[in-house]
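If you are new to this repository, start here. Below is one unmodified record pulled from the training split, so you can see the exact layout before writing a loader.
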Amino acid sequence: MRFGLVVQLLVFGVSVLAARVHVTWDVGYKSISRDGFSTWRAIGANGQVPIPPIYVTQGDVLELTAINHLDKPITLHAHGLFQRNSTFYDGVGMVTECGIPPGGQYTYMIDTGEQHGLYFIHGHYGLEMSEGLRAPFIIQEKEQSTEYDEDILLTLEDWGQQPEGELIERLKQVSTDSLPNDYKTGLVNGINGNISQTVQFECNRRYRIRVLNIGLDQSFKVQIPGHTMHVIEADGVTTKPLRVDGLDLAPGQRYSVIVQALESDEFNYGLNVTMYADFLDPVPGLTPRYYPQVIEYRKGAPMREYAQQSDDALVWPDDFTLEPRDECEMGSADRVIELNKRNYLPGMGLPYYGLGNTSYASVRVPTMLSALTMGDLARDPLVYGPQSSVIVLNYMENVELVVRNGMNRSHPMHVHSRVFQVVERGPWGDAQAMGKRVVSLQVARPNNPMRRDTVVLPEFGYIKLRFKADLPGAVSIVHCHTEHLAQGMAVVLVEAPRVLQQNARVPQALLDNCRALGFPISGNGAGNQGYDLTGLPPAIAL
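And here is the target side for that same chain:
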């Protein structure tokens, strides 16, 4: 396994010096067909699509330099990484930076600290992630806490029939709560899932399989019939081993499982991948889509066949059965913030979504720079502009987010810079009237609720999440990890902005990039002083 890592680093132009890993991404276009029938201009790095994974060791600092060869701005976000005293490296366009202009560059200093596990890095300016600007990011433990013999990476993603610009144009032509039917293709380790790949198993060996969904809006299920999986990690949080029959991953979610190989090589077995979307009605051959891969014990051995079982008969990981290995009691709630998923559907045109009274949209000054330069006024959400959807948090207060969804589509909700406790899930809205299953009420164990960074907000349901505001100066977006972010389904948390003003050392390159793109680097959301928001377009009321 170590040899494979060295080869990966050399091939991708990486140099490793002590605890610093230097990676350069020359981000550019590449015309490619990844689904076997549509060819369009994807986004890659160093001429490669897909972009190869990045491996580091716990405690390393990844210095990721992005050089922009596109004709539009880009940013890079390390999904799941904590940004303690480094919010200016979180990589969210017009939230923590203006973006990297065409011809420009920026170096993201990603300190892994005590984190380890499975993450990924992706574009966070518009929907560039959906065009290929994404790659797995694996932080290996300094000392292996779970025994296994080999590490296997399984990357899952969806691939549409057109790039971002055309997707946005299609969004403008709909007046419903979902995209026009795209019927995307599933990719397994960057390859069309219809092309069966082989994973080599040896008898009696223990395998750690890291599985992540880096797609835009499709979910994936993974099963290995005849084998038992034990979940040991979810979203970078080490868990107590939990036996499951399969994995179910919404966009942005990750799992590590231990799989014990069998004693006999008499048969080979299936590694079954299913791609589905709860907002699309089933169409045979189109959705869901099935991508059978192969677990090969012996070349030429016959495949062991199993009768198909319904999902209800199988055990899947759930946020109310998973349990972190490092126990932490459920925090109390000093403050409850209610976020209701709302939408505004014009007769024709782009549907707007939000988590409150207005739809999130970019402002003229990145929210982080407004928090940095507005003095005492930075504690007032009004100065950021209504479309910024800012919520200001007090240092060390215990926060509960109650997120409700009365619509017939689930949403993978991601919180930047931290993990949260998943404390409750229940029904909301009239599911029965829409012919949908009623969400059952689940309450977490008080002594050790599950912690993660991406959770599914069920259709016609709600979730309660808790965390301590212990990242003073952080500016963190909370959003749906699908195309709904581009349609406004987000809020921004600004924690203790006065601490940011006292301690932040914003890289000069970030400010230079703002100037190159023509954006102010100080002032309120409009780039003005006080509450003068002249220059901002009207916020979309929901």
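Two things worth knowing about this chain: The chain is about 10% helix and 35% strand. The two ends are 52 Å apart (CA to CA).
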